[in-house]
Amino acid sequence: MRICQLTPGTGSWYCGSCMRDNVLIRALRAEGHEAVMGQLYLPAKVEGEHAEYPDTVFFGGLNVYLRHKSLLFRKAPRWVGRWLDAPPLLRWLSRRSGMTHAKDLGSMTVAMLQAVRGRQAEELDRLLMWMRSVGRCDVVCLSNALLMGLVRPIREALKAPVVVFCQGEDGFVDSLVQPYRSQAWELMANQSRHADALVAVSRYYGEQMRMHLRLPEGRMHVAHNGIETADLAPPETPPAMPTLGYLARMNRAKGLDTLVDAYIELYRSGRSQNAQLCVVGAQTENDPKFVAGLQRRLQEAGCGDRAEFHPNVSREEKVRLLRGMSVLSVPAPNESFGLYLLEAMACGVPVVQPETASFPELIQATGGGLLCKPNDPSDLAAKLAELLVDGDRRSALGRAGRRAVLENFTDGHMARRVIGVLRHVVEQAGLTQPPTQPTVQSSA
Questions:
Q1: Angle, to 10 degrees, between the axis of helix 16-30 and the axis of helix 411-429?
Q2: How confident is the model at residue 440, as a pLDDT?
């Protein structure tokens, strides 16, 4: 098949959705499909090997903002827009996360969901011109439901079915100020009816989005994520020092403060087994202040010298730190999937996660960890202590998790799950010519 994927980038920090899309494109190509990825808003920042894709950024973040705010800029020559869409400028801009006010963020989100008419029409024409230039697509995939405004224009212009992935949009939409929050959900629900299929990354999140978008049963497909595992393996010898690990963005939304509170409780109770705390993940402009507050709490509790924070590390450094962990926990209250769980399990590291959102689904599917009560540092501490004390159980969970990842959650498994949905969509769309067949045999 020939597939065109459109993915919003983050510019300067690692994002799970960007990394998942990059891995998916590479895996689809490895399966013999023709897959190309276009970048929206900001350049994508991903780990490891990049899928080859054009350096051009469509609907560049600064361009969209100025077109939205300024009538004068909407009349500016196109060369001005091209200059503002330069990837180096957009990467620098992405570090200035406080530049956009909450009201502006909400109004721009609503504008992009309104079938990108009016102020963004020229940008839409430029995107469609590029998509035509890459050749006839059997199907177009949009990275998340916030791009729903593109469904109808792309479908009508390219005469190709459009599939929308759902992976964690609800937290962003619910963070918008009113009335934009309600308007965004309403627009997404209305635009979703033009999509040929919607695909969620977990059963839990599929049901959440189905209800948000008021879709009938059967309209939401599920294709679990997968990861590249070639460089992920358990260490030859267990870590010399027991280590509690964290791997996600360093903010409150991912539950880092809950983990720190649990770690302090373990330390004060004497159940920590002298464990270290290793925090790894992305930091954006607003995160260091939050992290500094956590570090002060650790110092005041007398265990600050046992905690290490590693922001914005490379893939190689992340793997090294993962292999030094004894147990991993990212106690986020609401997560559509959690690629970090698969990465930890692939390294033989068991996990402890809240019994909420997608986590029960993933723990059941892998057998690679334990569940605890949500937003409860004491119960999290108790479950972590169980594994710190019982090395045999910790090892058994680690082996089970790694086996499950290799058998069901690799990048190849993800690609084949997605292709199964896309083939169904193409067949239902009734194309006049059959989709392009893979040139190599699938390993499934």
A1: 80
A2: 35
Q: Which two tokens stand for residue 417?
A: 């799950």
Cβ(362)–Cβ(338) below 8 Å: yes
Task: State how far the Cα of 416 lies from the Cα of 411, in Å rounded to an integer.
Answer: 9
Residues 6+ apart with CB under 8 A from 118: 111
pTM here is: 0.88
Record the tokens describing residue 80, joined without a space.
């001005």
Angle at 388 between CA 327 and CA 372, to 5 degrees: 65
Q: Are 102 and 177 in contact (CB under 8 A)?
A: yes
Residue 433 predicted with pLDDT over 50: no
Query: What CATH superfamily classification does 243-408 receive?
Result: Glycogen Phosphorylase B; (3.40.50.2000)
Residue 370 and residue 387 in contact, taking contact as beta carbons nearer than 8 Å: yes
Q: What are the residue boundaries of the structural domains of the chain, listed by start?
A: 2-228+413-429, 243-408
At 180 the three-state DSSP class reads helix
Phi, psi of 285 (to 5 degrees): -55, -35
Count of CA atoms in the C-beta half-sphere (13 A) of 81: 22
Q: Are 356 and 334 in contact (CB under 8 A)?
A: yes
Tally of CB atoms within 10 A around 134: 13
Instruction: Quickly tell me which residue has 């593109």 as its tokens.
Output: 150
Helices (H), 195-286: 203-212, 256-269
The string of pLDDT tens digits covering residues 375-423 is 999 999 999 999 999 999 999 999 999 999 999 999 999 999 999 999 9
H helices of 70-136, in order, are 71-74, 78-84, 87-94, 102-113, 121-133
> What type of residue is 184?
A
**3-class DSSP string for 143-158:** CCHHHHHHHHHHHHHH
Average pLDDT value over all residues in the chain: 87
Tell which residue, 428, 432, 414, has the closest CA to residue 33.
414
Sequence-ordered list of residues with C-beta below 8 angstroms from that of 202, at least 6 positions apart, any chain: 222, 224, 336, 337, 358, 361, 362
Q: What is the distance between the alpha carbons of residues 335 and 204, in angstroms, rounded to a whole number?
A: 9
Starting from the edge strand earliest in sequence, which strands make up the sheet with 57-58, in order?
57-58, 34-40, 2-8, 139-142, 162-166, 197-200, 220-222
Identify whether the C-beta of residue 264 lies closer than 8 Å to the C-beta of residue 301: yes
Q: Which of 255, 151, 245 is nearest to 195 (CA)?
A: 151
Q: Which CATH code for domain 2-228+413-429? A: 3.40.50.2000
Assign 166 to helix, strand or coil.
strand
Phi, psi dihedrals of residue 68, rounded to the nearest 5°: -70, -35
Which residue is associated with the tokens 């999937």?
337
